Inverse folding.
């Protein structure tokens, strides 16, 4: 198996770990699915984005995580597990691994010996409860039982907002060609990921540029087809 496996000693309150995992999984677009007989968290996939997988558990103060992607055969066709290293798919794999490193760092943040009043989430078997969202690096203020509120730092998806804006502008500039479709779709994908960050305005701008670019590209395609038909 090509999995990135990590066991990290945290010794943090269980509810805090569950809260942080729910925040991370939600902001990065993961869904809890049955994949080949195993319940896993999955994000991405389709024609333009490499699918990402994650399973985790937390017992006796030790956080266990397994993460991987899949091998691309054709656009939208994947097979086998792909490790988070090597040249193939280097950029998306590096981004995924960087996200996981950020997660580990956030899980180590000091929160004190408290119990957070947050719905339970049962690790690898858990669902994703509806709990208050955390806004980028600012975080929310979960209220511990019997104590004052504490502030925790949540997952940051700002770089995806930046990427959405970059791809959206590229898609708009290249809207006269088929390449514009590729950049436009990527902009929409990353805009959806970056909309929960503090730079959600950039994600929105990228989304708007992408949509305008895709509309222009579709018009060019229609006009080209009509031109060919007219010439016949």
């Amino acid at each position: 198996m090509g999995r990135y496996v990590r066991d990290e000693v945290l010794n943090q309150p269980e509810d805090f770990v569950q809260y942080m995992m729910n925040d991370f999984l939600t902001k990065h677009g993961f869904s809890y699915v049955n994949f080949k007989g195993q319940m896993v968290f999955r994000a991405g996939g389709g024609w333009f984005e490499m699918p990402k997988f994650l399973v985790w558990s937390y017992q006796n103060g030790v956080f266990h995580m397994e993460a991987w992607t899949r091998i691309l055969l054709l656009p939208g066709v994947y097979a086998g597990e792909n490790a988070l290293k090597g040249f193939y798919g280097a950029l998306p794999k590096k981004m995924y691994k960087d996200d996981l490193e950020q997660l580990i760092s956030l899980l180590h943040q000091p929160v004190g010996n408290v119990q957070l009043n947050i719905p339970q989430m049962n690790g690898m078997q858990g669902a994703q409860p509806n709990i208050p969202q955390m806004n980028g690096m600012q975080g929310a203020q979960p209220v511990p039982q019997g104590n004052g509120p504490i502030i925790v730092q949540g997952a940051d998806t700002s770089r995806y907002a930046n990427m959405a804006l970059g791809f959206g502008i590229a898609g708009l500039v290249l809207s006269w060609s088929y390449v514009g479709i590729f950049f436009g779709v990527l902009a929409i994908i990353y805009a959806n990921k970056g909309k929960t960050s503090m730079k959600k305005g950039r994600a929105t701008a990228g989304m708007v540029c992408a949509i305008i670019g895709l509309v222009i590209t579709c018009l060019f395609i229609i006009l080209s087809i009509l031109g060919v038909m007219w010439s016949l």
Remarks:
- Confidence is low (pLDDT under 50) at residues 113-146.
